[in-house]
Design goal:
alpha+beta, Nuclear Transport Factor 2, Chain: A, 3-stranded mixed sheet, 3 helices, 10 strands, 33% strand
C-alpha cells in the first residue's frame, strides 16, 4: 500500500495507503465550510498515527516524510519535536516507553479550513487502551501536517456558578 500525493507542480514523498490521492492545484483555497474531513485528510491523519506507533525506524521515516511537512511541529504534553528528525525522535522515545503499542483513531476526523481534530487511543499489544486523547492540527497547502498539538485524557467538566474557586 503506497501513498503518492500529486499536484501539478510537485510530488510528495511516498507513504502508506491503498490509493493515489490527488491534491488540489496550488493556490486553491481549502473549503471553509467543510466540517468533516475528506479521504485525503483522513489518510494523512491515519498515516500520522501509524508512523507515530511504528517500531521499524526505516518504515517510520518513510511514513513521517509522507504525512509531515519538513518543518512540521508535534507538541505533546511531555515533549515537542520539530521537523522530520524531531518527530521521529518523539516516536522513538514513545516506542522505548511503550514497546509494541500502537495508535488507533477513535473518532472521525473533523476538519475546517486547514485545521483538523480527532481522538485516539494508545493500545497495548493485547488490545487494552492505555492512554486516550485528542489532537488538533493544521495542514499545509500540500495536504501534509504542519502542526499537531496533542492533549491527553478527557477534558475536565466545566465549573458551575455554584462551584467555589477560580474558573
Amino acid at each position: 500500500m503506497l501513498l503518492s500525493l500529486h499536484r501539478d507542480d510537485a510530488t510528495v514523498p511516498a507513504g502508506i495507503t491503498s490509493e493515489v490521492i490527488d491534491l488540489p492545484p496550488a493556490g486553491d483555497d481549502h473549503d471553509a465550510m467543510t466540517t468533516t474531513a475528506n479521504e485525503t485528510t483522513t489518510a494523512v491523519i491515519d498515516g500520522y498515527l501509524a508512523a507515530y506507533g511504528e517500531p521499524d525506524a526505516d518504515v517510520r521515516g518513510v511514513r513521517i516524510e509522507a504525512v509531515w511537512a519538513p518543518d512540521g511541529r508535534l507538541l505533546d504534553p511531555p515533549a515537542a519535536g520539530e521537523g522530520h528528525v524531531g518527530i521521529d525522535g518523539l516516536a522513538t522515545a514513545l516506542q522505548g516507553q511503550f514497546p509494541g503499542h500502537r495508535f488507533r483513531r477513535t473518532s472521525a476526523v473533523d476538519a475546517h479550513h486547514d485545521h483538523v481534530r480527532f481522538t485516539w487511543e494508545l493500545v497495548a499489544p493485547d488490545g487494552t487502551p492505555v492512554l486516550a486523547g485528542m489532537d488538533v492540527g493544521r495542514l499545509g497547502r500540500d495536504g501534509r501536517l504542519e502542526q499537531i498539538v496533542g492533549f491527553f485524557g478527557e477534558l475536565p467538566a466545566a465549573r458551575t456558578d455554584d462551584d467555589a474557586g477560580p474558573r
